[in-house]
C-alpha cells in the first residue's frame, strides 16, 4: 500500500485513481483478513467502489472535497457510525447501533474518505492485545504468532497489513501507541480535545495510525478542530499539517529511559531510545536525561479506578452475560467488587496526582521542547496472551511510559525505532509540550528520515 500523501498526489496528477486504490485495498483485505481478523464490520465492497468512482469524477472535474478525497480509511469500532453496530469487543453485550455519526466519522465522510470498515478491539478496550471474547484473536501482519497490541488492535493490524493508508484508533493509556511499537507504525495520540469525540472521557483520545508521520499529519488535517458534540474539544487553531520540516539545532530534548515504576525497559528497547537521542544530539539538539518521577502507587491507583469503572458495567450484566466476558477481564474487574466509596475516590484522585507529578517533572526538566522514551518496556508477545505481564497483579505495568500523557493531555506519538535481535519491532515515543501536536509530528518525521527502518 502506497502512502496516503503519495496517493493523494497521484490522484491529482492522474497517475492513479481512487478506483484503482480501492480495488487494491479490497484485494489486500481479501488476502489477509482471514488470518489477521482485523475487521468487525467490512463495508459493502460495491459501495466503496461506487464512492471511489464518484471521487474519481470529482478529481477529474477539479472539485475534490479535500486533499484526501478518495483515500481509504478504517475506523475503530468504538468510533460511532450511523447504522453500524458497536460491540465494544465483548460477547457479553448486544451491539449498539448509533443513529448518527460521531464527529470523526462525519468529518471523514465530508472529506471524501472511503471507509472500508470498523476495526476490532478487545473487551471494553481494556487489554493491550488483540484478544476478544467476541472477535477472537487478532494477529500481527508482521508475524501472525505475535500480538498486534491494543486496544486499537484491528486498526494496527489493518495499518501494518496495508488495508488502507489511514486508520483511526483510540487511546486511554496507550491503546494507539502500543500497536505502534509492536507493529512498527507511526501513530499519534493527539492533545486532549484536538480530535473531538462523541463520548469524551478523562484521558481518552482518538488519533491517526499509519505508516509515516506525514500520513498521520494528513489525517489530522481532516479530523482536528472543535465540535459542539464534544464539550471538551479545543478551540480552533490554524495548523499547517503539511509543514513537517524541522531544524533540530538547539532543540531541547529530554530522554526518559528509566521508568522508576512498572516494568523497566528491556536493554534493546532502551537502546533504541538512546539511539534516537544520539541522532538528535549529533544534529545539534540539546539532549538531557530526565529522572523517574512516577511511583507505583499512582499507576496502581489508576488501574484500580479503571477496575471499579468496569466492575460497575460488569455487575449490571446477568450471570449468563458475565459468563461470556473474557475470563481475564472478568477476573480483573472482580478485584474491584469489594471496594467502598472511599477507596474508589482515593483511586480516582490518582489521576490528578499523575497530572501534578508529570507536570512538575516536565518543568523540572527545563520545559523541554520534546521528550523521547520507550513506548513499552518490551517487544511484541504471543498473540494469544491478553497482556504482556498478565500475572502477579502486573496487568497494567507496561503502560508506565504511555499513561502519564493521557492524564496531562499532552500529544505523544510513536515512530519505528529499530528491531530486536529476533526481528521484532521497537517503537520510540515522542512527547510534546501541551498542544504542540505538530512539533511531535515534525520530530517523528525527522527521526523517520534520519533512520529509516524496514516495514
Strand-helix topology:
Layout: H1 4-13, H2 18-36, E1 39-42, H3 45-61, E2 72-76, H4 103-110, E3 114-119, E4 131-132, E5 136-137, H5 153-161, E6 166-171, H6 177-183, E7 186-189, E8 205-210, H7 213-223, E9 252-255, H8 267-282, E10 286-289, H9 296-315, H10 319-322, H11 327-334, H12 341-364, E11 370-374, H13 403-408, E12 412-419, E13 425-432, H14 437-450
Parallel strand pairs: 2-3, 2-6, 9-10, 9-11
Antiparallel strand pairs: 1-3, 4-5, 6-8, 7-8, 7-12, 11-13, 12-13
Helix pairs in contact: 2-3, 2-5, 7-14, 9-11, 9-12
Order of helices and strands: HHEHEHEEEHEHEEHEHEHHHHEHEEH
**Shape by Cα distribution:** globular
Distance between the termini: 11 Å
Q: Runs with pLDDT <50, length 5+?
A: none
The overall average pLDDT, rounded, is 97
What does this structure look like?
- With 455 residues, the chain is of the alpha/beta class.
- The chain has 14 helices and 13 strands.
- The strands form two sheets. An eleven-stranded mixed sheet has the order 1-3-2-6-8-7-12-13-11-9-10, with helices on both faces.
- Helix 9 packs across helix 12.
- The termini are close together.
Please provide a brief summary of the model.
The chain is 38% helix and 14% strand.
Characteristic terms for this protein:
alpha/beta, about 450 residues, eleven-stranded mixed beta sheet
Amino acid at each position: 500500500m502506497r502512502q496516503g500523501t503519495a496517493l493523494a498526489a497521484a490522484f491529482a496528477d492522474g497517475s492513479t485513481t481512487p478506483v484503482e486504490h480501492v480495488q487494491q485495498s479490497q484485494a489486500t483485505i481479501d488476502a489477509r483478513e482471514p488470518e489477521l481478523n482485523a475487521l468487525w464490520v467490512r463495508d459493502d465492497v460495491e459501495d466503496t467502489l461506487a464512492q471511489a468512482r464518484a471521487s474519481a469524477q470529482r478529481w477529474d472535474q477539479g472539485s475534490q472535497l479535500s486533499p484526501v478525497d478518495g483515500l481509504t480509511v478504517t475506523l475503530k469500532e468504538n468510533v460511532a457510525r450511523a447504522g453500524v453496530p458497536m460491540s465494544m469487543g465483548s460477547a457479553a453485550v448486544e451491539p449498539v447501533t448509533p443513529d448518527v455519526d460521531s464527529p470523526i466519522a462525519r468529518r471523514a465522510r465530508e472529506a471524501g474518505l472511503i471507509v472500508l470498515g470498523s476495526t476490532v478491539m478487545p473487551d471494553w478496550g481494556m487489554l493491550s492485545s488483540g484478544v476478544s471474547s467476541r472477535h477472537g484473536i487478532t494477529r500481527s501482519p508482521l508475524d501472525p504468532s505475535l500480538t498486534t497490541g491494543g486496544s486499537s488492535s484491528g486498526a494496527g493490524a489493518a495499518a501494518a497489513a496495508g488495508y488502507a493508508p489511514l486508520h483511526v484508533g483510540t487511546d486511554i493509556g496507550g491503546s494507539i501507541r502500543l500497536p505502534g511499537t509492536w507493529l512498527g507504525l507511526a501513530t499519534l495520540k493527539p492533545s486532549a480535545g484536538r480530535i473531538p469525540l462523541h463520548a469524551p472521557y478523562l484521558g481518552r483520545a482518538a488519533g491517526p495510525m499509519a505508516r509515516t508521520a506525514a500520513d498521520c499529519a494528513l489525517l489530522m488535517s481532516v479530523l482536528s478542530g472543535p465540535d459542539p458534540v464534544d464539550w471538551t474539544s479545543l478551540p480552533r487553531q490554524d495548523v499547517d499539517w503539511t509543514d513537517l520540516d524541522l531544524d533540530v539545532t538547539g532543540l531541547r530534548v529530554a530522554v526518559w529511559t528509566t521508568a522508576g515504576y512498572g516494568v523497566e525497559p528491556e536493554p534493546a528497547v532502551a537502546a533504541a531510545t538512546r539511539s534516537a537521542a544520539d541522532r538528535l544530539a549529533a544534529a545539534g539538539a540539546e539532549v538531557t536525561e530526565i529522572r523517574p518521577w512516577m511511583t507505583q502507587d499512582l499507576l496502581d491507583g489508576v488501574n484500580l479506578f479503571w477496575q471499579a469503572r468496569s466492575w460497575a458495567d460488569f455487575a449490571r450484566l446477568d450471570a449468563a452475560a458475565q459468563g461470556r466476558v473474557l475470563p481475564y477481564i472478568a477476573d480483573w474487574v472482580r478485584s474491584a467488587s469489594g471496594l467502598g466509596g472511599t477507596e474508589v475516590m482515593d483511586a480516582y484522585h490518582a489521576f490528578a496526582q499523575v497530572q501534578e507529578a508529570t507536570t512538575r517533572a516536565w518543568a523540572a526538566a527545563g520545559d523541554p521542547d520534546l521528550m523521547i522514551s520507550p513506548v513499552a518496556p518490551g517487544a511484541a508477545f504471543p498473540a494469544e496472551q491478553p497482556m504482556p505481564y498478565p500475572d502477579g497483579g502486573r496487568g497494567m505495568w507496561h503502560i508506565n511510559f504511555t499513561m502519564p500523557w493521557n492524564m496531562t493531555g499532552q500529544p505523544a506519538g510513536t515512530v519505528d525505532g529499530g528491531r530486536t535481535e529476533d526481528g521484532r519491532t521497537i517503537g520510540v515515543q515522542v512527547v510534546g509540550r501541551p498542544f504542540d501536536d505538530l512539533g511531535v509530528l515534525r520530530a517523528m518525521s525527522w527521526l523517520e528520515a534520519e533512520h529509516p527502518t524496514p516495514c
